[in-house]
Amino acid sequence: MNHCNGTRQGGYNLLELMITLMIAGMVLGFGIPSFTDFMATNRMAAAANDLVTSIHAARTEAVKRRQPVALCASSNWADAAPACDLGGGAGWIVFVDVNANASVDAGDTVVLTHAPLADGINLAIDAGALPYILYGANGFPQAAGVGPAINDIQLCDARGDHDTGGGVAAGRWIQIGPTGRPQTYRMQAEVQGNPVGGC
Asked: Is residue 198, in this structure, part of any structural domain at all?
C-alpha cells in the first residue's frame, strides 16, 4: 500500500524561470557595455604608462651614462640588432646614441625594446615631427640632425572623443616638456585640445 508522505518537491516553475532569465538578461545588458568600456580604459592606461616608462628610462639612462640616449619607433624592435624606423615603426627601442643622430650605429647600445601598442590603440605625434626623442647627457631633450623630435604624443582608440566618467577622456595626451619630463593628460578637455588635434 502506497502512502503519500505530504512532502513537496522543490524547484522552479515556468513563470519563476522566465522572470529569473529576464532579470539575468537585463543585468548582462547593462553590465557588458560597462565592462567593455572598463577594459578599453585599462588598455589605454597601460599603453600610456608603458610609453611614459620608456621615456623616463631614456632620460634616466642619458643622465646615468652621461651620453645621449634616444627613444625611437622601430619596425624590427624584437630583432637581435633593432633599428630606428623614422617612417613610423610599430614598436620602439631605447638606446645609447653616441653620435646623437637618432640611428643605431656601431658602438650604440640598445637598453630597452618594446612591442607595438595593443590592437586598436592609435598613436599620433606632432605634425612634422619624426618618431624619436633624444636626450642629451644633461637629461634635456635635443634634436638630432635628421629633423624635429616629438613634443606631443596622442593615444586614441575606437571610442574617439568619449567621456569615460568625471570628464576623463578615453584617449591620452603625453607631452614632453622643456626639461624632458613627460606629462600625461587624461581629462577630456586637455586631450581634445592638445597640439596633435584630439581623438
From this structure: no
